[in-house]
Design brief:
The chain is 31% helix and 27% strand. The radius of gyration is 34 Å and the shape is elongated. The strands form eleven sheets. Strands 17-16-31-30-29 form a five-stranded antiparallel sheet. The protein has a four-stranded mixed sheet with strand order 1-10-8-9. A four-stranded antiparallel sheet has the order 2-3-4-5, with helices on one face. Helix 14 (387-396) packs across helix 20 and helix 15 (431-437) packs across helix 20. Strand 26 (529-530) and strand 27 (537-538) form a beta hairpin. The longest helix is centred in the last third of the chain and has 16 residues, at 548-563. It is an alpha+beta fold and 625 residues long. Mean pLDDT is 90; it is low at 1-32. It starts with a strand and ends with a helix.
Length: 625
């Protein structure tokens, strides 16, 4: 076994064989001994795979001609041939037929279309094709064969907002062969198929159709799998190993970036194309969402090869494929590291940071939760963190921040029961203090002061239920139907409102900037994104400018949440002030939503203080700047 470090090669998964009906093209009411019969039989035999039928209509040795025609299919690894006669002329005992060939090269390649010529002459009263290799292609000469040479640009990285990669290089081990150095390619492919599970015929067809001096990648292994199979691979005479470094090991946020794996026999069969053995494939996250962009599409050349030297003689056709390109994200690696540190001491938590002025997602970190399924797409009760949105509706409905509200330990509103989970600072609080301390019994009592439609309108303005689109799963939240005071009271304190950490980070960002913005995770390729059908363009909702007076009051309330309320643990000793509130626990989970400077965050913590996590995040971010 030879260990090499050369550029790898890649081709696309094979297409199924498809033979076209040819009778309308090649048959008709033809007279005996006309050249039409010979042309028809030759092309029908070639197209259908009856190579002896085609060979008998030539003046060459039938066995040799049949083999040469069959070799063309193998040399091209072609799925099918189609032919159309474009003209026949004759003069005396000679004739010439012109045809157009359409060759399906399989593996998601374009059709190769070329024009050929069949010279014919009469032999003992029968028309015969005058045999030479140029019958199969005008530029195929004696002592030559056809070959297919695929090219690939490897895998491109996913980048953060500073164009630094969000993954590190890892070594992939690509097993392949250089055909000219292998005595028995069939045997090599059979042994490799036995070790790896890939189909022997597909492995061999790739070797057979390649230029003999070109390394042909066949199977790719990660480090662990290669270590498991190394001894068996070393026992296969002729197998070479190309060690390639590719950007496949994800950095934080790992579940957002996604993981990459080599194509397996199972995934090759499921995908069909364009991936194939020897490629890498994104399994989840952005690596999966942007698989085609990151890997591009294989380029292909059809060439003629000198059988003696193995060198390329002529390039007959070339398709450059689709260039691969990196994916640029809005992730700020500095803030991402701060987020990772902030959640590290928790048991279960999620933190999402966004840029208030744009909605760009700056960091996503979790502990015991999933960054996509929970932080972006989780459906959690909003708790009294939703009182930010409810306060928007209440303030517009005439509630004053100085209004006095009883804050009992428990209260019933319309039959719905509300209970404090911690002792209030006083039995009677202003609306301002009720908001900053999260007194759910006081806030719920305001249900009769606001219409359900006003709560819905405020929720809509802050993006709850908005139809935004990201390349990964996400959830903007849902509002309940509110036909009673009980339902309105539950909504004010977020008991029947479902949201994701991402949605709540955007709510905080909206108060900070005065405008709600839809989330942005990827900047290149730019949104709008294609829909699932790949055709319909999905556009992001427009930003929503909020009422300036209401926003001013909300900012004051959220600043008080840190200076004198339950979010005191988020306070910063230096730099920009922190604004935010902490929710009362629901199902053991509490929220902090707020901002500092140009960074808005939502923190969801199970069994801990989310304000302390937010405070740690702000401190780590400041230290790293």
């Amino acid at each position: 076994m030879i260990v090499r470090s050369v550029p790898g090669r890649r081709r696309i998964a094979a297409a199924a064989l498809a033979l076209a009906a040819t009778a309308p093209l090649l048959t008709g009411c033809l007279q005996e001994a006309s050249p039409h019969d010979a042309v028809r039989d030759f092309l029908v035999g070639w197209q259908s795979g009856d190579h002896m039928l085609a060979a008998r209509r030539t003046d060459g040795d039938p066995a040799e001609v049949a083999k040469a025609i069959g070799d063309v299919r193998l040399d091209l690894d072609a799925a099918s041939f189609r032919f159309q006669v474009t003209g026949i002329t004759s003069e005396g005992d000679t004739a010439e037929a012109r045809y157009r060939a359409e060759v399906d090269l399989g593996e998601n390649n374009p059709l190769w279309v070329y024009d050929g010529v069949l010279p014919l002459h009469l032999v003992d009263g029968q028309w015969k094709v005058r045999w030479s290799p140029s019958v199969l292609h005008p530029k195929l000469g004696p002592g030559q064969r056809l070959a297919v040479e695929p090219t690939s640009g490897g895998r491109q990285p996913i980048l953060d907002r500073e164009d630094d990669p969000l993954q590190t290089n890892a070594v992939l081990y690509v097993a392949g062969v250089t055909p000219a150095t292998v005595d028995d390619p069939q045997k090599v492919c059979a042994e490799l198929a036995k070790v790896t599970g890939f189909a022997q015929d597909r492995l061999f067809s790739r070797v057979r159709s390649a230029p003999p001096k070109t390394f042909v990648p066949l199977v790719t292994f990660g480090r662990q799998k290669f270590a498991e199979l190394r001894a068996e691979l070393e026992a296969i005479d002729g197998i070479e190993i190309d060690q390639q470094e590719q950007p496949v090991a994800p950095a934080a946020p790992k579940q957002i970036v996604g993981t990459v794996s080599a194509v397996t026999p199972e995934t090759e069969q499921q995908l069909g194309g364009p991936q194939r053995a020897g490629d890498s494939i994104g399994l989840d996250g952005l690596q999966k969402a942007y698989q085609d962009r990151l890997t591009g599409a294989t380029g292909t050349k059809v060439v003629t090869i000198d059988l003696k030297t193995g060198e390329t003689v002529t390039k007959l056709a070339e398709w450059p494929g689709r260039a691969n390109a990196p994916v640029s994200t809005t992730i700020d690696s500095r803030l991402q590291r701060a987020a990772e540190s902030a959640v590290s001491a928790t048991r279960r938590s999620a933190l999402v940071a966004v840029k208030p002025a744009t909605g760009e997602i700056l960091a996503v970190s979790t502990k015991g939760m999933h960054q996509v399924k929970d932080a972006l797409a989780g459906k959690f009760p909003a708790g009294s963190a939703f009182s930010v949105v409810a306060a928007d509706a209440l303030l517009k409905s005439g509630v004053k921040t100085t209004q006095k509200l009883p804050c009992p330990q428990s209260r019933s509103v319309g039959g719905a029961r509300f209970q404090l989970t911690r002792e209030a600072s006083s039995r009677t609080l202003s609306f301002r203090r009720s908001f900053t301390e999260g007194c759910v019994t006081a806030l719920a009592a305001l249900a009769r002061r606001v219409e359900a439609s006003s709560l819905v309108a405020s929720a809509t303005a802050y993006g709850i239920g908005s139809e935004w689109t990201l390349p990964l799963s996400s959830y903007s939240g849902t509002m309940p139907g509110m036909r009673s005071d009980a339902a309105k009271a539950q909504a004010i304190v977020g008991q029947n409102v479902k949201v994701s950490p991402l949605a709540m980070a955007l709510v905080a960002g909206a108060v900070a900037s005065g405008t709600w913005h839809p989330p942005v995770l990827v900047t290149s390729p730019a949104q709008p994104l294609p829909s699932d059908d790949g055709e319909t363009v999905v556009r992001q909702p427009d930003p929503v400018r909020l009422n300036a007076d209401t926003v001013k009051t909300l900012r004051s309330l959220m600043r008080a949440g840190v200076t004198s309320g339950s979010a005191a643990a988020a306070a910063a000793t230096t730099g920009a002030p922190v604004h935010g509130i902490v929710s009362a626990p629901v199902d053991g989970r509490s929220w902090f939503i707020g901002w500092r400077g140009e960074v808005a965050v939502a923190v969801l913590v199970e069994g801990g203080d989310p304000a302390a996590v937010a405070g740690a995040f702000f401190r780590y971010a400041t230290a790293a700047s």
